[in-house]
Amino acid sequence: MSRRVKVSAAQLGPIHRADSRKSVVARLVEMLKEADSRGSKFVVFPELALTTFFPRYWMEDQKEVDKYFEAQMPSLETQPLFEVARQKGIGFYLGYAELIEEEGKTHRFNTSILVGPDGRIIGKYRKVHLPGHAEHRPTMPYQHLEKKYFEVGDLGFNVWKMFKDDIIVGQCICNDRRWPETFRVMALKGAEMVVLGYNTPTDNVYAPHEPPYMRVFHNNLSIQAAAYQNGIWVVATAKAGKEDGFWRHGDRGADRRDREQEHDRGGRGCFLRLRPRARRIYPQHYLQLRQTPPPRALQADQRAHGRQSRALKLKWATKEQRCNTLPKTSPRTSATSS
Protein backbone atom coordinates (compact mmCIF):
# COMPACT_ATOMS: atom_id res chain seq x y z
CA MET A 1 0.00 0.00 0.00
CA SER A 2 1.58 3.27 -1.13
CA ARG A 3 1.36 6.48 0.88
CA ARG A 4 2.03 10.08 -0.04
CA VAL A 5 3.53 12.88 2.02
CA LYS A 6 4.56 16.31 0.80
CA VAL A 7 7.97 17.39 2.11
CA SER A 8 9.63 20.81 1.75
CA ALA A 9 13.37 21.42 1.79
CA ALA A 10 13.67 24.78 3.59
CA GLN A 11 16.87 26.20 2.15
CA LEU A 12 18.10 28.99 4.40
CA GLY A 13 20.08 31.96 3.23
CA PRO A 14 23.16 33.05 5.18
CA ILE A 15 23.07 33.54 8.94
CA HIS A 16 25.70 36.01 10.10
CA ARG A 17 27.47 36.23 13.45
CA ALA A 18 25.60 39.46 14.20
CA ASP A 19 22.15 37.87 13.66
CA SER A 20 20.20 37.25 16.85
CA ARG A 21 18.60 33.92 17.66
CA LYS A 22 15.23 35.61 17.75
CA SER A 23 15.58 36.95 14.19
CA VAL A 24 16.69 33.54 12.89
CA VAL A 25 13.76 31.74 14.53
CA ALA A 26 11.40 34.32 12.99
CA ARG A 27 12.76 33.39 9.56
CA LEU A 28 12.25 29.69 10.26
CA VAL A 29 8.68 30.33 11.41
CA GLU A 30 7.87 32.15 8.16
CA MET A 31 9.32 29.28 6.12
CA LEU A 32 7.26 26.80 8.13
CA LYS A 33 4.10 28.81 7.48
CA GLU A 34 4.86 29.05 3.77
CA ALA A 35 5.43 25.30 3.53
CA ASP A 36 2.10 24.72 5.29
CA SER A 37 0.33 27.07 2.86
CA ARG A 38 1.65 24.92 0.01
CA GLY A 39 0.36 21.70 1.50
CA SER A 40 3.58 20.33 2.97
CA LYS A 41 3.41 18.10 6.04
CA PHE A 42 7.12 18.04 6.84
CA VAL A 43 9.94 20.59 6.53
CA VAL A 44 13.68 19.88 6.47
CA PHE A 45 15.88 22.72 7.76
CA PRO A 46 19.69 22.75 7.39
CA GLU A 47 22.45 21.78 9.80
CA LEU A 48 23.16 24.37 12.55
CA ALA A 49 20.09 26.26 11.40
CA LEU A 50 19.97 28.64 14.38
CA THR A 51 23.44 30.21 14.00
CA THR A 52 26.18 30.99 11.56
CA PHE A 53 28.49 28.07 10.84
CA PHE A 54 30.74 28.98 13.77
CA PRO A 55 33.29 26.11 13.35
CA ARG A 56 34.92 28.28 10.67
CA TYR A 57 36.24 30.56 13.45
CA TRP A 58 39.07 29.92 15.90
CA MET A 59 37.85 30.86 19.39
CA GLU A 60 39.73 30.30 22.64
CA ASP A 61 37.16 31.74 25.04
CA GLN A 62 34.73 28.92 25.87
CA LYS A 63 32.04 31.40 26.89
CA GLU A 64 32.18 32.90 23.42
CA VAL A 65 31.85 29.42 21.89
CA ASP A 66 28.93 28.46 24.12
CA LYS A 67 26.88 31.40 22.83
CA TYR A 68 26.24 29.30 19.72
CA PHE A 69 24.93 26.29 21.69
CA GLU A 70 21.45 25.43 22.95
CA ALA A 71 21.31 24.22 26.54
CA GLN A 72 17.59 23.48 26.18
CA MET A 73 15.36 22.50 23.30
CA PRO A 74 12.88 24.01 22.92
CA SER A 75 14.11 27.16 24.64
CA LEU A 76 12.30 30.45 25.14
CA GLU A 77 13.77 31.70 21.86
CA THR A 78 12.94 28.59 19.81
CA GLN A 79 9.53 27.85 21.36
CA PRO A 80 7.62 29.85 18.68
CA LEU A 81 8.78 27.38 16.03
CA PHE A 82 7.31 24.46 17.99
CA GLU A 83 4.08 26.31 18.64
CA VAL A 84 3.54 27.06 14.96
CA ALA A 85 4.26 23.42 14.09
CA ARG A 86 1.57 22.33 16.57
CA GLN A 87 -0.94 24.91 15.33
CA LYS A 88 -0.42 24.02 11.68
CA GLY A 89 -0.02 20.28 12.20
CA ILE A 90 3.31 20.17 10.37
CA GLY A 91 6.52 18.40 11.42
CA PHE A 92 10.11 19.44 10.87
CA TYR A 93 13.77 18.46 11.09
CA LEU A 94 16.10 20.99 12.74
CA GLY A 95 19.87 21.04 13.17
CA TYR A 96 21.54 22.93 16.03
CA ALA A 97 24.50 22.91 18.44
CA GLU A 98 23.59 21.09 21.66
CA LEU A 99 25.11 21.62 25.11
CA ILE A 100 24.24 19.16 27.89
CA GLU A 101 25.35 18.43 31.45
CA GLU A 102 25.67 14.77 32.43
CA GLU A 103 27.22 13.47 35.65
CA GLY A 104 28.90 16.79 36.31
CA LYS A 105 30.49 16.99 32.86
CA THR A 106 29.65 19.29 29.96
CA HIS A 107 29.20 17.77 26.51
CA ARG A 108 28.73 19.50 23.17
CA PHE A 109 27.28 17.89 20.06
CA ASN A 110 26.26 18.77 16.53
CA THR A 111 22.64 17.65 16.85
CA SER A 112 19.41 17.33 14.90
CA ILE A 113 15.86 16.53 16.00
CA LEU A 114 12.63 15.32 14.43
CA VAL A 115 9.55 17.21 15.57
CA GLY A 116 6.10 15.79 14.96
CA PRO A 117 2.95 17.59 13.77
CA ASP A 118 1.94 17.96 17.42
CA GLY A 119 5.04 20.03 18.21
CA ARG A 120 6.70 17.30 20.30
CA ILE A 121 10.27 16.07 19.77
CA ILE A 122 10.09 12.54 18.42
CA GLY A 123 13.75 11.71 17.85
CA LYS A 124 17.26 13.08 18.35
CA TYR A 125 20.53 12.39 16.55
CA ARG A 126 24.10 13.52 17.24
CA LYS A 127 26.56 13.76 14.36
CA VAL A 128 29.01 10.87 14.16
CA HIS A 129 31.28 11.72 11.22
CA LEU A 130 32.89 15.00 12.27
CA PRO A 131 34.99 16.54 9.48
CA GLY A 132 37.75 19.11 9.66
CA HIS A 133 40.51 19.56 12.23
CA ALA A 134 40.99 20.53 15.88
CA GLU A 135 44.16 22.65 15.77
CA HIS A 136 44.52 26.25 14.62
CA ARG A 137 45.65 26.59 10.99
CA PRO A 138 46.17 30.33 10.50
CA THR A 139 47.32 30.00 6.88
CA MET A 140 43.88 28.77 5.80
CA PRO A 141 41.26 31.27 4.57
CA TYR A 142 38.90 29.85 7.21
CA GLN A 143 38.91 27.04 9.75
CA HIS A 144 36.83 23.87 9.94
CA LEU A 145 36.86 23.10 13.65
CA GLU A 146 34.05 20.63 14.22
CA LYS A 147 36.55 18.28 15.87
CA LYS A 148 37.45 21.06 18.31
CA TYR A 149 33.95 22.22 19.24
CA PHE A 150 31.95 18.96 19.09
CA GLU A 151 32.20 15.45 20.47
CA VAL A 152 31.46 12.42 18.31
CA GLY A 153 27.76 11.53 18.49
CA ASP A 154 26.76 8.81 20.93
CA LEU A 155 23.18 7.99 19.92
CA GLY A 156 23.81 5.91 16.78
CA PHE A 157 21.68 5.82 13.64
CA ASN A 158 18.05 5.24 14.59
CA VAL A 159 14.62 5.53 12.96
CA TRP A 160 11.23 6.74 14.20
CA LYS A 161 7.62 6.40 13.08
CA MET A 162 6.03 9.69 12.08
CA PHE A 163 2.68 10.96 10.82
CA LYS A 164 -0.61 9.12 10.91
CA ASP A 165 0.65 6.66 8.27
CA ASP A 166 3.58 5.58 10.50
CA ILE A 167 6.21 6.55 7.95
CA ILE A 168 9.60 5.35 9.18
CA VAL A 169 12.05 8.27 9.17
CA GLY A 170 15.78 8.38 9.89
CA GLN A 171 18.09 11.38 10.22
CA CYS A 172 21.74 12.30 9.87
CA ILE A 173 23.86 15.44 9.44
CA CYS A 174 26.12 16.79 6.69
CA ASN A 175 29.32 14.70 6.44
CA ASP A 176 27.40 11.57 7.52
CA ARG A 177 25.96 11.49 4.01
CA ARG A 178 29.36 10.61 2.54
CA TRP A 179 29.57 7.28 4.38
CA PRO A 180 27.50 4.32 3.16
CA GLU A 181 27.02 2.78 6.62
CA THR A 182 24.97 5.81 7.66
CA PHE A 183 22.10 4.94 5.35
CA ARG A 184 22.60 1.17 5.42
CA VAL A 185 22.08 0.93 9.15
CA MET A 186 18.89 2.97 8.98
CA ALA A 187 17.63 1.04 5.95
CA LEU A 188 18.12 -2.23 7.81
CA LYS A 189 15.98 -0.78 10.58
CA GLY A 190 13.20 -0.17 8.06
CA ALA A 191 13.76 3.49 7.13
CA GLU A 192 11.62 4.70 4.25
CA MET A 193 12.91 8.28 4.29
CA VAL A 194 16.15 9.79 5.63
CA VAL A 195 16.37 13.55 6.15
CA LEU A 196 19.50 15.60 6.65
CA GLY A 197 20.79 19.15 6.79
CA TYR A 198 24.27 20.27 5.80
CA ASN A 199 26.64 23.23 5.44
CA THR A 200 29.10 22.83 2.59
CA PRO A 201 31.41 25.68 1.57
CA THR A 202 31.95 26.40 -2.11
CA ASP A 203 35.72 26.21 -1.66
CA ASN A 204 37.56 23.21 -0.25
CA VAL A 205 40.32 24.48 2.05
CA TYR A 206 41.94 21.03 2.01
CA ALA A 207 41.98 20.84 -1.80
CA PRO A 208 41.99 24.42 -3.21
CA HIS A 209 42.28 23.08 -6.76
CA GLU A 210 38.84 21.41 -6.55
CA PRO A 211 36.33 23.43 -8.65
CA PRO A 212 32.97 24.34 -7.07
CA TYR A 213 30.96 22.24 -9.52
CA MET A 214 32.78 19.13 -8.26
CA ARG A 215 31.66 19.98 -4.74
CA VAL A 216 28.05 19.92 -5.90
CA PHE A 217 28.64 16.76 -7.93
CA HIS A 218 30.06 14.84 -4.96
CA ASN A 219 27.20 16.03 -2.77
CA ASN A 220 24.57 14.81 -5.21
CA LEU A 221 26.48 11.59 -5.85
CA SER A 222 26.53 10.61 -2.17
CA ILE A 223 22.83 11.31 -1.70
CA GLN A 224 21.68 9.66 -4.92
CA ALA A 225 23.85 6.59 -4.32
CA ALA A 226 22.43 6.15 -0.81
CA ALA A 227 18.86 6.41 -2.12
CA TYR A 228 19.54 3.97 -4.97
CA GLN A 229 21.42 1.39 -2.91
CA ASN A 230 18.89 1.27 -0.09
CA GLY A 231 15.62 1.91 -1.90
CA ILE A 232 14.75 4.93 0.24
CA TRP A 233 13.95 8.61 -0.07
CA VAL A 234 16.68 11.02 0.99
CA VAL A 235 15.71 14.66 1.55
CA ALA A 236 18.68 17.02 2.02
CA THR A 237 18.80 20.76 2.66
CA ALA A 238 21.70 23.21 2.90
CA LYS A 239 22.33 26.85 3.59
CA ALA A 240 23.16 28.95 0.54
CA GLY A 241 24.70 32.29 -0.19
CA LYS A 242 27.57 34.31 1.26
CA GLU A 243 27.67 33.84 5.01
CA ASP A 244 30.00 36.25 6.82
CA GLY A 245 31.96 36.59 3.59
CA PHE A 246 32.19 32.85 2.83
CA TRP A 247 30.16 31.20 0.09
CA ARG A 248 28.01 28.12 0.76
CA HIS A 249 27.29 26.15 -2.39
CA GLY A 250 23.74 25.33 -1.29
CA ASP A 251 21.55 22.64 -2.82
CA ARG A 252 18.44 20.78 -1.87
CA GLY A 253 16.24 18.04 -3.19
CA ALA A 254 14.80 14.58 -2.75
CA ASP A 255 16.20 11.39 -4.24
CA ARG A 256 14.71 7.98 -4.76
CA ARG A 257 16.38 4.89 -6.15
CA ASP A 258 14.02 4.56 -9.10
CA ARG A 259 13.79 8.15 -10.34
CA GLU A 260 15.85 11.23 -11.06
CA GLN A 261 16.55 13.83 -8.42
CA GLU A 262 13.52 15.90 -7.43
CA HIS A 263 14.70 19.45 -6.76
CA ASP A 264 12.38 21.51 -4.58
CA ARG A 265 12.52 24.54 -6.82
CA GLY A 266 10.68 27.64 -5.66
CA GLY A 267 9.74 26.12 -2.30
CA ARG A 268 6.82 24.17 -3.76
CA GLY A 269 7.73 20.95 -1.95
CA CYS A 270 8.04 17.45 -3.34
CA PHE A 271 5.43 14.71 -3.17
CA LEU A 272 7.11 11.53 -1.97
CA ARG A 273 5.31 8.28 -2.76
CA LEU A 274 6.27 5.71 -0.16
CA ARG A 275 5.82 2.06 -1.09
CA PRO A 276 6.72 -1.15 0.74
CA ARG A 277 10.34 -1.81 -0.20
CA ALA A 278 11.02 -4.84 -2.36
CA ARG A 279 13.48 -6.90 -0.33
CA ARG A 280 15.61 -9.10 -2.54
CA ILE A 281 18.68 -11.07 -1.58
CA TYR A 282 20.52 -9.64 1.40
CA PRO A 283 23.93 -10.97 2.40
CA GLN A 284 23.67 -13.42 5.26
CA HIS A 285 25.19 -11.08 7.86
CA TYR A 286 22.51 -8.49 7.12
CA LEU A 287 19.87 -11.11 7.82
CA GLN A 288 21.51 -11.80 11.17
CA LEU A 289 21.52 -8.10 12.02
CA ARG A 290 17.79 -7.90 11.35
CA GLN A 291 17.21 -10.74 13.88
CA THR A 292 14.00 -11.76 12.14
CA PRO A 293 13.35 -14.85 10.03
CA PRO A 294 13.34 -14.01 6.32
CA PRO A 295 9.93 -14.10 4.61
CA ARG A 296 9.03 -17.05 2.42
CA ALA A 297 9.58 -15.07 -0.77
CA LEU A 298 13.10 -14.22 0.37
CA GLN A 299 13.77 -17.85 1.30
CA ALA A 300 12.68 -18.89 -2.20
CA ASP A 301 14.96 -16.24 -3.72
CA GLN A 302 17.87 -17.51 -1.63
CA ARG A 303 17.26 -21.11 -2.71
CA ALA A 304 17.17 -20.02 -6.35
CA HIS A 305 20.31 -17.96 -5.83
CA GLY A 306 22.02 -20.97 -4.23
CA ARG A 307 21.15 -23.17 -7.21
CA GLN A 308 22.56 -20.55 -9.58
CA SER A 309 25.74 -20.29 -7.52
CA ARG A 310 26.24 -24.07 -7.53
CA ALA A 311 25.64 -24.17 -11.26
CA LEU A 312 28.18 -21.39 -11.78
CA LYS A 313 30.77 -23.20 -9.65
CA LEU A 314 30.17 -26.40 -11.61
CA LYS A 315 30.60 -24.49 -14.87
CA TRP A 316 33.91 -23.02 -13.73
CA ALA A 317 35.08 -26.39 -12.42
CA THR A 318 34.28 -27.99 -15.75
CA LYS A 319 36.19 -25.25 -17.58
CA GLU A 320 39.17 -25.70 -15.26
CA GLN A 321 39.13 -29.42 -15.87
CA ARG A 322 39.13 -28.78 -19.62
CA CYS A 323 42.07 -26.41 -19.28
CA ASN A 324 44.04 -29.00 -17.35
CA THR A 325 43.67 -31.46 -20.21
CA LEU A 326 45.29 -29.09 -22.74
CA PRO A 327 48.93 -29.76 -23.70
CA LYS A 328 51.39 -27.60 -21.76
CA THR A 329 53.28 -25.03 -23.81
CA SER A 330 56.89 -24.03 -23.44
CA PRO A 331 57.78 -20.63 -21.90
CA ARG A 332 58.99 -19.39 -25.30
CA THR A 333 55.67 -20.34 -26.95
CA SER A 334 53.71 -18.67 -24.17
CA ALA A 335 55.73 -15.49 -24.38
CA THR A 336 55.26 -15.34 -28.13
CA SER A 337 51.53 -15.91 -27.96
CA SER A 338 51.00 -13.25 -25.29
Describe the structure.
This protein is of the alpha/beta class and 338 residues long. Helices cover 32% and strands 24% of the residues. It folds into 2 domains: 3-278, Nitrilase/N-carbamoyl-D-aminoacid amidohydrolase; 297-337. Strand 10 (241-243) and strand 11 form a beta hairpin. Helix 1 runs parallel beside helix 3 and helix 5 packs parallel to helix 6.
CA-based gyration radius: 24 Å
Helix-and-strand structural type: alpha/beta
State the major sheet.
6 strands, mixed
Sequence of secondary-structure elements = EHEHHEEEHEEHEHEEEEEEHHH
Q: From the 3D structure, determine the CATH topology of the largest domain.
A: Nitrilase/N-carbamoyl-D-aminoacid amidohydrolase
Descriptive tags:
338 residues; alpha/beta; Nitrilase/N-carbamoyl-D-aminoacid amidohydrolase; 6-stranded mixed β-sheet; 14 strands; globular; disordered C terminus
